[in-house]
Design brief:
globular, Rna Polymerase Sigma Factor, Chain: A, 9 helices, 185 residues, Arc Repressor Mutant, subunit A, mainly alpha
Amino acid sequence: MQIVEIELIARIQKGELELFAEIYELFAQKIYAFIFYKTFHRETAEDITSQTFTRALEKIRSFDSRKGSFNSWIYAIARNSVIDFYRTKKDSKNIDDVFDLASETDISVEFDSQAEFTEIRAALRKISPRQREIILLRIWEGLKFREIAEVLGKSEAAVKMDFARGLKSLKKEIVVMLLLLPLTF
């Protein structure tokens, strides 16, 4: 963590809560992307991102840079927020959330994106949830193995091993998908 971030957090912890907006600006996009790849739903990811930063602001005084980086601390809050969401999730859906034609979204682009996400999700579902989470944190979020270990409460060696095993499994899955591709035409 940069010295500027440490000083900023220290000032927030002393009561200058308006400075939290700068923390939000630094981390919002990365946290949103992390949550989106766990939910694959834009509005849900936005809601959980908002909850994550609300919780972070409420608990900012408990952050201790000697115990770990702020990056891993905020990702742990995001991860726990996603877990809480899935624990309380209801099986019913609001029809407006499922099929919203009132937006100005290009439906063909949205459909292509959704198809790609479906393929990505299918490949990621073939590996263990821990491997999936480690790969998302490492590849999409760019966290270091040490930071991922802090977020998950695992050793760095265990994180590296799960990452390698997950990638190996994904590579096999991609090869199978490429072999089956000509059969779909």
